[in-house]
Amino acid sequence: MSTAFVRIAAVAALGSVMVACGPSDLVGDKKLGPIEGGMPIARVAEIIGNGPLTPLQPTDSIRLYHGFRTQIFLANGSQYRVIWYREAAGSIEDPITREQETPILLHADTVVGKGWSFYDDKAGELGIPNPYRDKERLDSISQAQTPKQ
Prior knowledge:
Largest sheet: 5 strands, antiparallel
Shape: globular
CATH topology: Beta-lactamase Inhibitory Protein, Chain:B, domain 1
Low-confidence stretches: 4-23, 137-142
Order of helices and strands: HHHEEEEEHH
Radius of gyration: 20 Å
Number of helices: 5
Structural class: alpha+beta
Strand content: 15-25%
Mean pLDDT: 80
CATH architecture: 2-Layer Sandwich
Strand order of the largest sheet: 1-2-3-4-5
Helix content: 25-40%
């Protein structure tokens, strides 16, 4: 076997391992794996169990679904709910981040999809807030308005 062939094979093998071990689109990807489009919210609750968030005040309880942050939006005359799955303890006041949460999008209490790749596209299509994109937008506005020294 030629040395060049062995080098190319080694680089290809290393590249495939790196892709397989790369960052996931999902926090909790093993737990969220069984969640599929069309699944009812009750089945999602069985899979994800109880989350790590507790209300700081009584009014916070409406912002939680089984210990996970939840948000409800109206888009195109329909109600959409996002359950922000997370594994780390924290507060309902923590910002939503890709490193801490995974969005599960539901329409009429039925799963539409999950994960940031899905949510980025679908939130844009529906015109619902996307904490990741909105943060980028707000950061760029802030930078544009900050005087250069």
